[in-house]
Amino acid sequence: MAKKGNRVQVILECTEHKESGKPGTSRYISTKNKKNSPDRLELKKFNPILKKYTIHKEIK
Questions:
Q1: DSSP state of 41
Q2: In this structure, are residues 49 and 26 in contact, taking their beta carbons and an 8 Å threshold?
Q3: Residues 32, 7, 52, CA angle at the centre, nearest 5°?
């Protein structure tokens, strides 16, 4: 039986990677509480292809 609650898994994708023109994507999986943060999540995470920290936004 599945857990009941407001915590959901979200996928974070790099915003700068598409503009760079390099192949591949940088994605991370995280969790968030839908009740406390209903808007889309933005975190600074490491992009191994660009070799720097960039802003990763939640995708649907």
A1: P
A2: yes
A3: 25
Alpha carbon 18 to its chain's center: 14
- CA pair distance 42, 44, nearest whole angstrom: 7
Nearest to 58 by CA among 35, 6, 34: 34
Q: What pLDDT, on a 0 to 100 scale, did the predictor assign at position 36?
A: 93
End-to-end alpha carbon distance in the chain = 25
Collect the ranges in the chain with pLDDT lower than 70: 1-3
Residue type, 31: T
pTM exceeds cut of 0.85: no
In DSSP terms, 43 is beta-bridged to 56
Between CA 12 and CA 56 the distance in angstroms is 5
